[in-house]
Amino acid sequence: MRIIPPLYIITPTYRRPEQIAELTRLAQTLMHVQNVHWLVIEDAKEKTPHVTELLSRTGISFEHLLAPMPESYKLRKGSKPRGVSNRNRGLEWLRENATSGVFYFADDDNTYDIKIFEEMRSTEKVSMWPVGLCTKTGLSTPILKNGSFSGFFDGWIAGRKFPVDMAGFAVSVKFLLERPRAAMPYKPGFEEDGFLKSLAPFEPKQIEFKAQNCTKILVWHTQTRKNEPALAIDTAKYGNTNLIMLRQQIV
Ligand code: UDP
Ligand code: MN
Predict the structure, then answer these.
(1) Which tens digit of pLDDT belongs to each residue from 81-123?
(2) Which protein residue has the closest C-alpha to ligand 1 atom 12?
(3) Catalytic residue check, 228
(4) What is the CATH number of the domain that holds 16?
(5) E strands along the chain, which residues?
């Protein structure tokens, strides 16, 4: 019997009006994937009850963990290292609990074709593939010329050794475990590059190309419009109605 390698999906998330909508979509994508273990890691001090409830009714095997962004980064002006504490918590969990398989950083707001999960399952070291809707160029991908690697296409190269999107690569658990210091830096814009560099020794020529030699887009860096927190319900007017229960489900 051939055993299919487990997939560990590391999802950073945080409380906001869109959170449950995003996680519902991702949960119902993952419900189509075999042998998956979902690490849902909240940037929060306490677990959001609606997240706990959603996770338990999907039937997906999961961990619900917490990893608040350190205060020093939260207070900083300008761009913040979004999802970094969460992803590092995921790596820590893998080091303590996983021995084989593949892991992938799947943000809660992206759009995933379920085929991408079967593509990444065979990763031996680090695999990569194209990501749609990424930066103004609309695309981030390794470039293959006559089938051989010849660099990266991305709207923002910025001197990065690995100018790729978070949604564009997966890593073998064994490969990670052989690199006890690998981690993601708290460096906005350089999270992917910093993490992939921390996997040294690892060079671009070792990348395994997926999605039919990087000719198919199976994941999209979608972004949801931000919604304002909902207004309070007038309890004097709607006290004994369904609106009270519904309002509790909305941030
Ligand atoms: N995120 C988080 N804390 C934050 C902001 C974002 O945990 O303060 C998570 C978010 O849920 C997502 C990931 O980090 O899974 C990337 O954030 P976002 O989608 O806002 O970044 P973008 O895609 O715009 O770079
Ligand atoms: Mn996003």
Answers:
(1) 999 999 999 999 999 999 999 999 999 999 999 999 999 999 9
(2) 107
(3) no
(4) 3.90.550.10
(5) 7-13, 36-42, 61-66, 102-105, 111-112, 126-128, 131-132, 139-145, 148-153, 169-172, 208-209, 219-220
